[in-house]
UniProtKB/TrEMBL annotation, chain A:
Lineage: Bacteria, Bacillati, Bacillota, Clostridia, Lachnospirales
GO biological process: phosphoenolpyruvate-dependent sugar phosphotransferase system
Top-level division of the source organism's lineage: Bacteria
Compartment(s): Cytoplasm
UniProt name for this protein: HPr family phosphocarrier protein
Keywords: Cytoplasm, Phosphotransferase system
InterPro entries the UniProt entry points to: HPr (IPR050399), HPr-like (IPR000032), HPr-like_sf (IPR035895)
Pfam families found in the cross-reference section: PTS-HPr
Boundaries of every HPr domain copy: 1-85
Organism of this sequence: Dorea phocaeensis
One cellular component term from this protein's GO annotations in UniProt: cytoplasm
């Protein structure tokens, strides 16, 4: 399992558009991608769950990636967060 | 004539007939199904069709309103395919042996409730998206069409509320305006209306009645008002307003993105003066390069007691963020004289214009000042905030202010709070004293901003409220212009910049003079931005 932390810098947090892009990105991989914020967690391939986390600017999230392509997926997810959120 | 008011989402004036959006309302009935397998198949098929429809809408929206706005339909597709959503529907069909329409409707309500319960206006707005997606599914399931509107001629589209898919399907050429009973300014309809440049007024409530269908109306998107069956006087006034608005838009079209540069290549920043958060929209609409004067008084005047650091921080942060990296010059508290707030407990003064006001209050009541400075520095992390201090008469005052800033910065660093160390600080040049010591002041600050109203009053010793003095008053008095010139020379000698934020900045007959003095920035009311920019470009 791969894991990384990220602090959201986008002023609007994970709102609809980046949530959509995030789900799209997570779906490119076979691995399970989970986003954790505090004691809540969400499957990154499910848009309602991701939006339901209500992630805002300055929130710290943990992203866990588990599966056959986890190395590649984790790296891509990290890139995605840095570039979009 | 009937007058209704709501919330303006996009400005502009539209005159035309009202046409009510007729939606085929479906009432969902709960019914028992025997063959749940078949029902699930029916749902899956409907889902496929709905997804294909969304794809078409996405493609249409790409052409009409661009990729960023079209993305919503892709998100709708994802919602439609969302595993939690699909599982919930399938489970309900299987375990409760109900029809797909009912399962979709109930699931939609549950998911919408989740968004509605979120502590975030933007996310609350997403309940409309869940409902839009689900209604699409239900309509496919029940073989009904999506409703439509008759648009032989351009009309004002009225509705209870419009979901994104409905907005996008309308023939853009034939929509004069949107007026709705409900909806939020964060809804995609509002966003699309803004992108499509169509006047829109929302939140008119139950007063917007179906019976107005076909009636002549005027939509004033600037003030958020609609007039049904307007009388001759209103019509005439609105037609005039419409003409002026169109002229302004034309000017904007010509100037948008163009530099404020004279024929000989001299550049000047044209900024806006604002007095409240709600003015930021007008600043952006008029394509100002920044905010040259944000009067922070409203925070104090609209409040019953001293505004807290948190309240102030939110406001400053929002302005900084809305201006997206453009300079926002915030003037610290300028209360006293004619602007009073009870809870300050200020004494009545014989001579308030020369009295206990502005920086004089701040320097003697540091707790008030420090709260504001902390809020400003905290907000500085979110954009390009600059801070300026009013009613300065001496270098000593500036040194005291800088000591206070030092304390605030140390506190914030200790608390681990983000802020920008390089926030520009400046002083208002609005007293003859400040002009006379401007060579010293320029060493201490990053910029000057000339407040011409007070500078004129203090230089000429003329109370502008006193009408009897009118014959003696000369806005272009050479003494005042000399004062500005001296301040400009002293600023430039120290490599600092100077702006003008008083009324004279908007006096187009002086623009040439100011440019010749080398003034670096002119800050005017939002409505004057475009005419001023035009004048600058016509100067030699």
């Amino acid at each position: 399992m791969k894991e990384f932390q990220y602090v959201i810098t986008d002023p609007e947090g994970i709102h609809a558009r980046p949530a959509g892009l995030l789900v799209k990105k997570a779906n490119e991989f076979a691995s399970n991608v989970t986003i954790k914020k505090g004691d809540k967690s969400a499957d990154a391939k499910r848009i309602f769950a991701v939006m339901g986390l209500g992630v805002k600017k300055a929130d710290e999230i943990t992203v866990c990636v588990e599966g056959e392509d986890e190395a590649k997926a984790s790296e891509a997810m990290e890139q995605f967060f840095k570039g979009n959120l | 004539m009937i007058t209704l008011s709501g919330k303006s989402v996009f400005g502009g004036i539209a005159i035309g007939k009202i046409s009510f959006y007729k939606r085929n309302e479906i009432t969902i009935k709960r019914s028992h199904v025997e063959d749940t397998e078949a029902e699930i198949k029916r749902f899956e098929k409907a889902k496929e069709q709905a997804s294909a429809e969304l794809q078409q809408l996405h493609d249409k929206a790409m052409d009409d309103v661009g990729e960023t706005n079209a993305m919503i339909f892709e998100i709708h597709q994802m919602m439609l395919e969302d595993l939690d959503y699909v599982e919930s529907i399938v489970n309900m069909i299987t375990t409760q042996e109900v029809n797909a329409e009912y399962a979709v409707g109930t699931t939609a309500d549950n998911f919408a409730a989740m968004f509605a319960a979120m502590d975030d206006a933007y996310m609350q707005g997403r309940t409309a998206d869940v409902k839009d997606v689900s209604e699409r599914l239900i309509k496919v399931l029940s073989n009904s069409d999506h409703g439509a509107i008759e648009m032989k001629e351009p009309v004002i589209v009225a509705a209870d509320d419009l979901v994104p898919s409905e907005t996008v399907q309308l023939d853009k050429e034939k929509v004069l305006a949107f007026v709705t009973m409900y909806g939020s300014s964060n809804s995609h309809t509002a966003i699309l209306a803004r992108t499509m440049n169509i006047p829109a007024v929302i939140g008119l409530g139950e007063d917007l009645k179906q019976e107005y269908d076909g009636k002549l109306a005027v939509v004033d998107g600037m003030d958020g008002v609609i007039y049904i069956d307007p009388d001759a006087r209103t019509m005439e006034a609105m037609q005039k307003k419409q003409r002026e608005d169109l002229e302004k838009k034309e000017l904007l079209e010509q100037l948008k993105g163009k530099e404020n540069v004279t024929k000989s290549g001299q550049k000047v920043n044209v900024y806006a003066n604002i007095g409240n958060l709600s003015d930021v929209g007008a600043v952006l609409k008029n394509d100002a390069g920044g905010i040259g004067l944000f009067r922070s008084e409203f925070l104090y005047l609209e409040s019953e007691s001293f505004p807290t650091e948190e309240q102030q921080f939110k406001v400053y942060k929002q302005v900084a963020e809305n201006m997206a990296g453009k300079r926002v010059i915030i003037r610290t508290l300028d209360i006293g004289a004619d602007k009073q707030a009870e809870y300050f407990g200020l004494d009545k003064e014989e001579n308030p214009a020369l009295g206990y006001r502005a920086i004089r209050i701040c320097l003697t009541r540091p707790e008030i000042f420090k709260t504001q400075l902390r809020a400003l520095y905290r907000a500085s992390a979110y954009g390009q905030i600059a801070i300026m201090f009013p009613m300065i008469i001496s270098v000593d005052e500036v040194k005291k202010i800088k000591e206070m800033i030092q304390v605030v910065q140390e506190e914030l660093t200790e608390e681990g709070v983000d802020f920008r160390k390089d926030v520009e600080i400046g002083v208002m040049i609005e007293t003859p004293a400040a002009v006379m010591v401007s060579h010293e002041l320029a060493k201490e600050v990053d910029f000057f901003s000339v407040g011409t109203n007070d500078l004129t009053q203090y230089t000429l010793a003329i109370d502008r409220q006193n009408q009897k003095l009118e014959p003696f008053y000369d806005a272009h008095h050479p003494a005042v212009l000399s004062m500005i010139r001296i301040a400009a020379e002293n600023a430039h000698r120290e490599g600092k910049w100077i702006g003008i934020c008083g009324e004279l900045a908007a006096d187009l007959s002086l623009t040439g003079t100011f440019l010749e003095m080398g003034i670096d920035e002119l800050s005017v009311a939002p409505g004057m931005i475009l005419p001023l920019r035009k004048t600058v470009r016509e100067c030699e």
